[in-house]
Amino acid sequence: MTTGDIVKEKGKKTMQLGEQLKYLRQIKNLGVNQLALKAGLKGSQISRLENGESQNPNFHTIKVLANALGVSLAYFDDISENKAKSEITAHLWEDISDEQLIEITRFIDYVKARDE
């Protein structure tokens, strides 16, 4: 069972970023300072995120937290109201070659056609 499955099972899929972060940190049995060290951030920064005092983290912050917690960026996808989602989306396309973009576009077309 993955961490994402645990979150879905518990009905936590609609949590805000701070709630997601705290919940996942606790599942991983990490203290705030342990996670901070693992992510290369300050403990106070993580506390502010978890308490909702900082609601618009940048892409880098979300990326290092996801890496430190062993989840993909998609785990934090429920923060759609947050500007970070658009930042994440923009960064996902940075290293895509023209050939890869064509392949991705074809796959999207395939999925759309399949689901019609």
Give a concise summary.
The chain is an all-alpha fold and 116 residues long. It contains 7 helices and no strands. It starts with a helix and ends with a helix.
Per the CATH scheme, the topology name is 434 Repressor (Amino-terminal Domain)
Please identify, by name, the CATH architecture.
Orthogonal Bundle
The H/E string reads: HHHHHHH
User: Would you identify the regions where 5 or more consecutive residues have pLDDT less than 50?
Assistant: 5-13
Report how far the terminal alpha carbons are from each other: 31 Å
Work out the helix count. 7
Mean pLDDT comes to: 78
Radius of gyration: 16 Å
What is the count of β-strands?
Answer: 0
Instruction: Bin the helical content.
Output: 55-70%
Structural class: mainly alpha
Work out the strand percent: under 5%
Largest sheet: none
CATH class: Mainly Alpha
Instruction: Categorize the overall geometry.
Output: elongated
Q: Please name the fourth-level CATH homologous superfamily.
A: lambda repressor-like DNA-binding domains
How many domain units? 1
GO molecular function, one term: DNA binding
Keywords: DNA-binding
Pfam family, one: HTH_3
Protein name: HTH cro/C1-type domain-containing protein
